[in-house]
Amino acid sequence: MAILQLGSIEAGGTKFVCAVGNEDYRTLDKVRIPTTTPEETLDKTVAYFKKFPDLKAIAISSFGPIELRRNSPKYGFITDTPKKGWANTDFLGRLKQDFDIPMAWTTDVNGSAYGEYVTSTLFNEKINSLVYFTIGTGVGAGAVIDGKFVGSMGHPEVGHVRLKRHPDDLDFPGICPFHGDCLEGLVSGPTFDARLGKPGKDVPLTDHVWDIMAYYVAQAALQETLLLRPDKIVFGGGVVSEPFLVKVRAEFAKLLNGYVDVGDLTDYIVMPLVKENGSATLGDYALALKEYNK
Amino acid sequence: MAILQLGSIEAGGTKFVCAVGNEDYRTLDKVRIPTTTPEETLDKTVAYFKKFPDLKAIAISSFGPIELRRNSPKYGFITDTPKKGWANTDFLGRLKQDFDIPMAWTTDVNGSAYGEYVTSTLFNEKINSLVYFTIGTGVGAGAVIDGKFVGSMGHPEVGHVRLKRHPDDLDFPGICPFHGDCLEGLVSGPTFDARLGKPGKDVPLTDHVWDIMAYYVAQAALQETLLLRPDKIVFGGGVVSEPFLVKVRAEFAKLLNGYVDVGDLTDYIVMPLVKENGSATLGDYALALKEYNK
Ligand SMILES: Nc1ncnc2c1ncn2[C@@H]1O[C@H](COP(=O)(O)OP(=O)(O)O)[C@@H](O)[C@H]1O
Ligand SMILES: Nc1ncnc2c1ncn2[C@@H]1O[C@H](COP(=O)(O)OP(=O)(O)O)[C@@H](O)[C@H]1O
Ligand SMILES: [Zn+2]
Ligand SMILES: [Zn+2]
């Protein structure tokens, strides 16, 4: 039996992870390309995939904001990103110059959400909907309902909601250049540096700032719960660890106060099933396969 | 040509509005039944629809919480409502005792959301998704994406999210018995009585409390915007008026700060298209028709 080759591009602000896998979601080959200029980075990406002439489809999970309305002339573009040089980049168009195969195009967090959704199903969890949060340099989330991404005007931008401030954190103005104390302005990785003058990895979990973080992240989970009623909320990104999620679950339970039933919290608010930040790559294989089968 | 008769039950905590309409969403007959005990109210409801032997389907938009997971033994029930006598009421089961026709079952706000969604489409708006908020005795919202309701674990309960407090409202504890200062605890109709000792209809729009209300309601709209990216957000309920929405739009614009494009705010944050609280009844006709055509 011939093995189907499927391409994945996880396009991040620091690096691109390009990989080739098969319909069993197994990675056959993988490479990291540093994110420099769009021209250089996309040329290297194209050159990499040229080595796989049997490639059947490619899926791209990109940092954003991106245009994903198919009826837009900018479909496939990275739009008004603050990342230097990358605003208004025709990402998909560049790939189409060299490859005449089906392509899927979505956000990094949507790709991760899809990977976790597919993996949950493979693990026989009864999942119809899932939210994937990343809490890293920025904060974002992707959501899948019945195999489709949420967002018809555009992709979600949950990093910029407002929250009830923690009583012990009222003086911190937040670091979002657009909103100050939005979710991202209060809990992204760089908030550790802003609050304490050192990176989060050097702040022990006994520090009270982690309780404050948990209070905010729990409110974000609460919003998704009450607006979407998903079956599961997955948290990834550099800031997140299982001990941190223990705190998040405790705050979430207090905030929800039993108002709706979400089942066992240890199954509801969870770390990714796919290890080593592989959720988006796996999601991409699944999205590429879906595009190929269309 | 025979006219299709479709039944609508808008089941509220104060009254049931029962109506019969046709596939053009025109009302042929309508009656109000006060909400007393489940037995009496549902008996009267059944008796009303018995007068229409040609009825082809019925849709119910009910106050909640309700069970809408079809695989649940309690599907069709009003579940743990605080409304006296109504907890654990087999609403759909009672109707099925007397009618052997297709029935749709959803929440009051979902019914309204669907009515507005259908009407928007009839008005040639390009709408793929819509959120309907009610701000009345309680606060809730329903959401439709591509013709389907959002919520796979259960229906949304957006009334209980937390918000950034307005600097001039920090001392008000909120009135939600479960959460204090959740959205409903801060902006439902009875908060006027709690804050000012008089009902909202007696508080002029020049009163600063309306700015505070607008700040919170704008945050609720912001959450829906950033989590769902809907095409339109409709506000109904006794507290809402067009002059109030003018304030809400202004606060929303400040909070969003141009971060995502939602188009013209006067088309995005709007009053219902269907007049006289008729959104749910119209939505019910459409849902009943859909059930009939299945
Ligand atoms: N153990 C940790 N605790 C808290 N924050 C951390 C930890 N490790 C990394 N971070 C923070 O996470 C952010 C990077 O997140 P990551 O998800 O790895 O990358 P990115 O979001 O850029 O893709 C940085 O701000 C970093 O300081
Ligand atoms: N003009 C008004 N301004 C502010 N609040 C109002 C106004 N009219 C009614 N209300 C409040 O709205 C609530 C009733 O909301 P409504 O949507 O009519 O009913 P319900 O939510 O019970 O179905 C009450 O708390 C009432 O005080
Ligand atoms: Zn922000
Ligand atoms: Zn509440």
TrEMBL record, chains A, B:
Reactions catalysed, as given in the entry: D-fructose + ATP = D-fructose 6-phosphate + ADP + H(+)
CDD domains attached to this UniProt entry: ASKHA_NBD_ROK_BsFRK-like
First-tier enzyme category under EC: transferase
A Pfam family the protein falls into: ROK
EC number of this enzyme: 2.7.1.4
SUPFAM superfamilies: Actin-like ATPase domain
Superkingdom in the source lineage: Bacteria
Keywords: ATP-binding, Carbohydrate metabolism, Kinase, Magnesium, Metal-binding, Nucleotide-binding, Transferase, Zinc
Cofactors required: Mg(2+)
GO MF annotation: an example: fructokinase activity
Family: Belongs to the ROK (NagC/XylR) family.
Protein name as catalogued: Fructokinase
Organism name: Levilactobacillus namurensis DSM 19117
